Amino acid sequence: MASNIHLTESFTNPPDYSFPHHRISRTMRDPQKTPIVLVACGSFSPVTYLHLRMFEMAKDYVRQNTDFEIIGGYLSPVSDMYKKPGLLSARHRVNMCTLAAEESANWLMVDTWEAFQSYQRTAIVLDHFDHEINTVLGGVYTEDGEHRNVRVMLLAGSDLISTMSEPGVWSYADLDHILGRYGTFIVERAGSGMDQATDSLAKWRHNIYLISQLIQNDVSSTKVRLFLRRGLSVRYLLPNPVVDYIEQNGLYLEESPNTSTTNSEKGKDRDSTNTLLKKDLPAQQQVC
Ligand SMILES: Nc1ncnc2c1ncn2[C@@H]1O[C@H](COP(=O)(O)OP(=O)(O)OP(=O)(O)O)[C@@H](O)[C@H]1O
Ligand SMILES: O=C(O)c1ccc[n+]([C@@H]2O[C@H](COP(=O)([O-])O)[C@@H](O)[C@H]2O)c1
Predict the structure, then answer these.
(1) Which segments constitute the Cytidyltransferase-like domain (predicted)?
(2) Ligand nearest to the CA of 82
(3) How far is CA 129 from CA 85, 151, 220, 284, in A?
C-alpha cells in the first residue's frame, strides 16, 4: 500500500448508523494470502443482476489470478445529493440492494453510510471502509490467531473507470488515493473499452486488475428504468424480490425529477430521451 494515511480521520455517520459486518469472514482460510474486501460504489437505481455478477466475476478472478483472499463484499449506494437522473430515493435504493444481497451470495452486504448523508467522494468512502474494518473491527485473523489488516478495493465497471480519464470528474489526489493506496478491480462493460478505460491510469497499473466479460451482458439500470416506464417486464434482469419491491411500491413509473447532471455520467444516462429505447428494442415493442 502506498500510504496509511486517510484523506480524513473524522467520519460523520448518518443518524442511527451502524457498520454492517455480519457476513465478513473474520478468520482467513489461507494465511499466505492478503485479505481484501470489495466495495462497489454506484447509484444502484435499481440494482441489477449485472451488479451482483460483478462480485462473482471478481471472486473467480481473485481465486485464479491473485494472492488475495476475499473476506467480504459491499454495495455502497450513493447519496441522494448525487442528483443523477433516474436516482430514486436512497431509502428505496438501499432496500432493493438489501433484498438483492440477501438472496444472493452469503458474503455480500449493503453499507448505508454514504447513502443516508451528504455526497461523499469515493476516496472518502474507501477510507470509511478501511476505518471501520481495520480500526474499529480490528481486521481479521489467520487460523493461528495472527492479525492481518484488510485491504479495501474498489470494484467497478469499465465505464466508471473511463470517467477517471475525463478532465474535471475526479481530482488527481483522489485518484492517487483510490488507485495508489487501495486499488481496483475493473469489470469489462459492453461499449466501454478496457484499454480506453485504463490508458491514462498507467501510473497505478500495478493496482488495477482487469476482468474480461466472458459472457456478454449489457443490462443497465438505465434500460431497466426505461422498460418499467413503458410497462415492460424486467423479470430475470433483477432478482425476483427486487422486481416484487418495485411493483409493490410503484417505482420508476414516471421520469425522475432529478434532471440535473453531474460530470460523472457524461454521455451515459440517456433517460431523458428515447434514443436508448429506439435503438435497443424491436420496433413492435416501441410503445412511445
Ligand atoms: N453491465 C455492467 N457491466 C459491468 N459493470 C457494470 C454493469 N452495470 C453496472 N456496472 C458497474 O456497477 C457500478 C454501479 O453502477 P450503476 O449503479 O451506475 O449502474 P448503471 O447500470 O451504470 O446505472 P445507470 O444506467 O443508471 O447509469 C459501476 O461501477 C458500473 O460501472
Ligand atoms: O469521488 C469522485 O470524485 C467521484 C467522481 C465520479 C463518480 N464517483 C462515484 O462513482 C459512482 C458513479 O455511479 P454512477 O451511477 O454515476 O455510475 C458513484 O458512487 C459516485 O460517487 C465519484
Answers:
(1) 39-225
(2) 2
(3) 27, 10, 26, 47
Has residue 288 been placed in a domain?
no
pLDDT tens, residue by residue, 194-248: 877 788 899 999 999 999 998 888 899 999 999 999 999 999 999 999 999 999 9
The reply to whether 123 falls in a domain is yes
Q: What is the CATH number of the domain that holds 163?
A: 3.40.50.620
271 lines ligand 1 (CB under 6 A): no
Number of domains in the chain: 1
What does the CA dihedral 243, 248, 250, 252 come to, rounded to 10 degrees?
Answer: -20
Atom of ligand 2 nearest to the CA of 84: 16
Residue pLDDT, tens place only, 1-27: 445 588 987 899 999 999 999 999 999
CA 190–ligand 1 middle distance (angstroms): 11
Regarding the beta carbon of 220 and ligand 1, being less than 6 Å apart is answered: yes
180 domain-assigned = yes
- Expressed as residue numbers, the domain containing 45 is 34-217
Whether residue 132 is contained in a domain is answered as yes
